[in-house]
Each structure stands twice: as structure tokens, then as C-alpha cells.
Amino acid sequence: MIITKTRKVVVVGAGFVGSSYAFSLVNQGIAEEIVIIDVNTSKAEGDAMDLNHGMPFASPAKIYSGNYSECHNADVVVIAAGANQKPGETRLDLVEKNAKIFKEIVNKVMASGFNGIFLIATNPVDVLSYATWKFSGLPAKRVIGSGTILDTARFRYMLGNYYGVDTRNVHAYILGEHGDSEFPAWSHAYIGSQSLADFSKTRNIDPVQAEKDLQGIFENVRDAAYHIIERKGATYYGIAMGLARLTKAILNNESSILTISTLLRGEYETEDVYIGVPAIIDKHGVQSILEFNLPPDELEKFNKSAKVLKENIRIIQKHFS
Ligand code: NAD
Q1: What is the CA radius of gyration of the chain?
Q2: In terms of DSSP H, where are the helices of 117-195?
Q3: Which of these, 272, 260, 267, 265, lies nearest to 299 by C-alpha position?
Q4: Of 127, 147, 187, 319, which residue is 20 to 30 A from 210 by alpha carbon distance?
């Protein structure tokens, strides 16, 4: 009998996002070993105890709080540590605070001998994914930001709702920054195999009305985090499920297309920035980037978004040496 290596995931940051992610992993039976690390060691310990008490209802898994030495044989290290957005704060407002925290965390993970894949959730996620790539020295394909995975999920959910179709049959993407400069790739949005314009006709929706409604849907997607933070202080279930989906794509070597933040090297006429694009994810991390043939107006939005991110990378560049 061949016994394969245990699927081991380390979660750094057991706040709203990190603990919801650990809960998703346990509920979906994605990992066999889950280690929780937080500066607030009591919170990490408490979460491990609480999750272990659900074991009779889940697939067997070893769950415990630990320290960075546990990263040495981890398949995936997920970072959800750091400050989150306060009401009215943009994701980019967090950049300085979280870059300093990241330098310390990534150095500790790498000192353990870690040789797996980083998944980054902390905001501003594109900038901190770039920073993690720099701090870690790992190949870019093994440092993945959650990017617009959540924005794309929100978009698919809202479009599915609008057209009365299962969201899983909506193929549409939010590209660019996970933040205010993101945009929808309308040119590549389909329901089944029909364009939104064609699908609107089957639903007898007036084209002018559809255009107005779709713009409203995008604005709700873009501003969703603000709307949720106003109501309950933080967003975490959606991103936790997105991170669990990404983890599954890696551990099961799925070659799934997911919108994540990765390093561009000329794709979309852009380079040296981490930004949200659709990519094929497998056990090696980012296997390849899907480069949509965007029309000029969408390409312009992409380039503007990349510019915003590059300006923010510049702010934290001093930490890279
Ligand atoms: P939170 O404040 O609830 O949790 C953060 C945790 O990080 C806390 O438990 C804290 O003790 C821990 N921490 C802080 N410094 C640390 C360090 N040096 N080492 C280890 N642990 C440390 O915040 P949250 O709501 O869980 O959000 C976490 C991050 O995720 C934020 O940056 C937030 O903006 C981001 N987020 C991202 C997305 C996305 O789509 N990528 C969605 C929602 C939230």
C-alpha cells in the first residue's frame, strides 16, 4: 500500500478570515493537517480546540495551533494576518502597516525551510502578494494572491440572480486590482455559451435597460466590501470559501480556472505587478495565465488598474532590500 504525504495547510492569522477559512477546510474535508498560527496565541489555541470538537461530524483531520517551524513540510501556507479595513478605509490604506507585518511573517515561514505554495488574502492583496514573492524568493507561480476570486464570485452570483440562472453557469470575470480600480470583462461574459446581450433577449429584457442594470450590478460588486463592512464590520465567509476553493484546486491538482493575483510578465501589455487575472491553478500553483483578447476600452482599464498597484508597490519597495 502506498501512503502519500499528508495534505498539510498552515493558516497564519486566525481572525475573521483565517478562522472562517479553517472552518471551510474542515467542513469540506480539504486538508488532513491544519496548523493555526496567530500572534494572539490564545485565539489560535481556542480555534483549534473548537474545530477539533467538530471532528465527529467531519473527515478526520489533525488540527492544532503551532509556530512557524510547522511550515517546513506544509503544502500550502495561507496568510490572512494583519490589519483589516475600518469603515471608510480603502484596501490600499492598509499597505504600510501590513507590508511590515508581512516581512516578518514571510521571513519566519521561509526560515522553516518551507517549499510549498503561499496563498495571500490580506489586503491590499495584490501589493502584499508581490511583496511575498519578493520576500520569499520563491518562483512567482508559487505565490498566489486571492486577487479578484471573491469579486468574480460576487459578480457571478449577482448575474445569476439577475437572469434567474445557476451562478455556476455564469462565466464572467472581474479583472484588475482587488479594489476600487477593478473592472468587469464584459467582452468575455457568458451564460452557458451565450453572450449577455443574447441572453438578455431570451429573457425579453430591453437592451438599454439591461445595460443600465448590468452597470448597477458591477457597481454593487465593486462596492460590496464597503456595504458589508458598514453592516457587520468585516467580510469573511465569501473569501474563506474562495480560499478553500483555491486550496482544493492546488491539493487536487485540478487545473481549474480561477481569477487570482499573479505576476504578469508582458501579459495584458503589463509587467512587474501582481494583479487579478484568470489563471489555471494546479499542484504547481499558477500553471498558466489566460490572456483574454480585451477590446481597447477594457485594456485601458486594466492598464489603469496596474498603474494604481505599481504606485502602491513603490510605497513599500524600501522593505524589499
Ligand atoms: P482580523 O483583525 O479579524 O484578523 C487578523 C488576525 O491577524 C488577528 O487574529 C491578528 O491577531 C493576526 N495578526 C496580526 N499580526 C500578526 C502577525 N504579525 N502574525 C500573526 N498573526 C497576526 O482581520 P480579518 O477580518 O480576518 O481580515 C484579515 C485580512 O484579510 C485583512 O487584511 C482584510 O482586509 C483581508 N480580507 C481580504 C479579502 C480578500 O478578498 N482578499 C476579503 C476580506 C478580508
Answers
A1: 19
A2: 125-136, 149-163
A3: 267
A4: 147
Ligand 1, atom 1, lies closest to the CA of: 15
Compute φ and ψ for 155, nearest 5 degrees.
-60, -50
pLDDT value of residue 1? 53
Give the residue carrying C-alpha cell 492583496.
125
Atom of ligand 1 nearest to the CA of 40: 11
C-alpha cell at 11: 493558516
Give the model confidence (pLDDT) of 165-187 as tens digits. 999 999 999 999 999 999 999 99
The whole-angstrom separation of Cα 295 and Cα 102 is 36
Handedness of CA 173, 176, 180, 184 (dihedral sign): negative
Q: How far apart are CA 152 and CA 221, in angstroms?
A: 8
Domain borders along the chain are 8-145
Record the pTM. Answer: 0.96
Distance from the alpha carbon of residue 113 to the mean position of ligand 1, in angstroms: 24
Spatial neighbors of 255 by CB under 8 A, at least 6 apart, are 249, 280, 281, 282, 287
Q: Has 72 been annotated as catalytic?
A: no
Q: Which of 178, 188, 227, 319 is catalytic?
A: 178
CA nearest neighbour of 68 among 55, 79, 57:
79
Q: Specify the fold of 8-145.
A: Rossmann fold (3.40.50)
Residue nearest to atom 17 of ligand 1 (CA): 39
